[in-house]
Design goal:
Blueprint: H1 6-27, H2 31-58, H3 71-100
Helix pairs in contact: 1-2, 1-3, 2-3
C-alpha cells in the first residue's frame, strides 16, 4: 500500500480538491450538492489540521512551500471557500427566483 506524504495531500487539497468543490457548486444547482458540500467541508478542514500537524512534525519548514501546512492558513482558506460557496448559492437562489415567474 502506498502512503502519500501529508504535505503533498495538503497541496492537492488546495490546488485541486477545493477548486473542484467550487466548480461543482457552480455547475450543479441541485440541493443535493449543497448538502454534500455542507456536510463534508468541515470534515475536510479537520483532516487538513491533522495533516498539517503530521507535516510540521516531519518537515518543520513545510509551511514555507505549502500554504495549508500552517493551521492559520487552513482556517483562512476554508473561510474563503465558504464565502465563495455562499456567494455562488446566493446567486443561484437569486437566478432561480428571477426565472420562477417566466414559465408562462
Amino acid at each position: 500500500m502506498v502512503t502519500i506524504d501529508p504535505c503533498i495531500r495538503l497541496k492537492v487539497i488546495q490546488s485541486q480538491l477545493l477548486p473542484a468543490v467550487l466548480k461543482s457548486a457552480v455547475e450543479n444547482t441541485s440541493s443535493d450538492i449543497k448538502t454534500a458540500i455542507d456536510l463534508n467541508l468541515p470534515s475536510l478542514e479537520e483532516k487538513c489540521y491533522e495533516l498539517a500537524e503530521k507535516c510540521q512534525k516531519k518537515y518543520p519548514d513545510c509551511g514555507k512551500e505549502i500554504e495549508l501546512c500552517k493551521p492559520e492558513n487552513i482556517k483562512t482558506v476554508f473561510i474563503q471557500t465558504r464565502e465563495k460557496l455562499d456567494k455562488i448559492w446566493k446567486e443561484q437562489d437569486k437566478q432561480g427566483k428571477e426565472t420562477a415567474g417566466t414559465d408562462l
